[in-house]
Amino acid sequence: MAPYRFVDHESADMRLALAGVAAAMVLTGCSGIQEAAEEGAVEGALSVLGQLAIEQAAGVELAGELDCAAKASGDDHEVDCSGETPDGKKASVKGSVTSFDAAQGVVRGKLTLVFDGKELGEQECVGAC
User: Fold this and answer.
1) pLDDT tens for the 129 residues of the chain, in order
2) What are phi and psi of 62, to 5 degrees?
3) Rounded distance between C-alpha atoms, residue 8 and residue 49, angstroms
4) Is the N end or the C end of the chain the one with fewer CB atoms within 10 Å?
5) pTM of this prediction?
6) Distance (Å, rounded) from C-alpha 102 to C-alpha 46?
7) Between the CA atoms of 90, 94, 97 and 100, what dihedral angle is there, to the nearest 10 degrees?
8) Coil, strand, or helix at residue 24?
9) CB burial readout 35-73, b (16+ within 10 A) else e
10) Integer Cα distance of 121 and 115 in angstroms
């Protein structure tokens, strides 16, 4: 008898959904679908890399990845990310992303890092710059 194997249905459903989006992009060339996929990729990359940038700049540990929203604006993406420390101090990354490469772990643009109400500075690149 084969050992029991746990199947994570949420992950499987997500992979199927992403495959469906990719297929729709290929088949239709729909710019709206492509734009949504790019926004999701920017949000995902910056949620992790922005968290690391704030932790490094402020010398703190956040309670997890940042929650990010991105919206296409011409060739760029306007982003607004937020998170907090375990004791409730707020952190954010806001600005404009001009390019990103999730595989290389880099996001470029004009990004402002804020922690506990204090601006930590503006970054042109977060991640493996």
Assistant:
1) 444 444 444 444 544 444 444 444 444 444 555 656 677 889 999 999 999 999 999 999 999 999 999 999 888 999 999 999 999 999 999 999 999 888 898 999 999 999 999 999 999 999 999
2) -85, 160
3) 26
4) N
5) 0.71
6) 9
7) 0
8) helix
9) eeeebeebbebbbbbbbebbbebbebebeebbebebebe
10) 10
